[in-house]
Write a structure and sequence with these properties.
Elements lengths: L2 H4 L9 E4 L10 H5 L8 H21 L8 H15 L5 H12 L7 H10 L3 E6 L3 H10 L8 E4 L10 H11 L6 E5 L2 H10 L2 E5 L10 H4 E4 L5 H4 L2
Parallel strand pairs: 1-2, 1-4, 2-3, 4-5, 5-6
Helix pairs in contact: 3-4
């Protein structure tokens, strides 16, 4: 459902707003953008490949069982190593810069104002991410979001990555709420679909106007930016 179609529903008993971190609150392509002068001209495509490989590694490790789990920071580094090798990025100093930049990704401009507005409306706010605790701590500090969050929840606590339902159960356990009383926000269609299947009220932050996937428009509210959320959750 679109934001316009669903804006008359109000908060609907929502008591907490939980956000994906990477790609939703934090700009995952900023690491390569920051060091674009040291990278090939098509760095944007390389950054997209890094992100895709990072997610692929997380899913494969989840599907192949507990013995194959690695932290999200490890799969992020593994993905960078693979993509960098494929594009001839071999300077260890450049790779160190990219890894460091990924740990300190900037927040999107609408992230902090949205969190602040939701807290002003009495909602609890949190992150639910594949990132491991150390990675997330560095990210929320760098993004200036720490003071605006009641909780930072990591998939590492259950030893498996999204979209496994055990990850989404972390938010219901933390807040003591039924899934339908939690607004879950993600820019990743696969993440939004999984949260909807779990029973959360889902907001798909479709910043780039991507076509519908997984029938999301029937089970989630699509918004073009996070700043639409305070009005939708009043």
């Amino acid at each position: 459902m679109s934001a316009a179609a669903s804006s008359d529903k109000g908060g609907g008993g929502i008591r907490a707003a939980v956000f994906d971190a990477y790609g939703t609150l934090l700009d995952v392509h900023a690491a390569m953008q920051r060091h674009a002068d040291r990278l090939p001209p098509d760095w944007e495509r390389i950054s997209a490949e890094w992100r895709c490989k990072q997610l692929e590694y997380s899913w494969v490790r989840s599907l192949t069982g507990p013995g194959h789990h690695r932290t999200f920071w490890q799969v992020t580094q593994d993905a960078l190593a693979f993509v960098a090798a494929g594009h001839g990025i071999t300077d260890p100093a450049v790779l160190d810069l990219l890894r460091d930049a990924y740990r300190r990704l900037p927040a999107y401009p609408d992230a902090a104002p949205t969190l602040q507005a939701l807290r002003g409306q009495g909602l609890q706010t949190a992150i639910l991410s594949n990132g491991d605790p150390a990675m997330l701590d560095a990210a929320v500090q760098a993004g200036g979001l720490a003071r605006l969050l009641d909780a930072v929840l990591s998939a590492e606590d259950v030893g498996v990555f999204k979209p496994d339902p055990r990850v989404y159960a972390l938010m219901t356990r933390r807040f003591g709420l039924e899934p339908g009383r939690i607004a879950f926000v993600s820019s990743n269609a696969w993440d939004a679909q999984a949260a909807a299947a779990f029973g959360a009220r889902v907001f798909w932050c479709n910043r780039k106007g991507q076509p519908d996937e997984y029938g999301l428009r029937a089970v989630a509210t699509a918004v073009s930016g996070l700043d639409a959320l305070p009005n939708l959750l009043k």
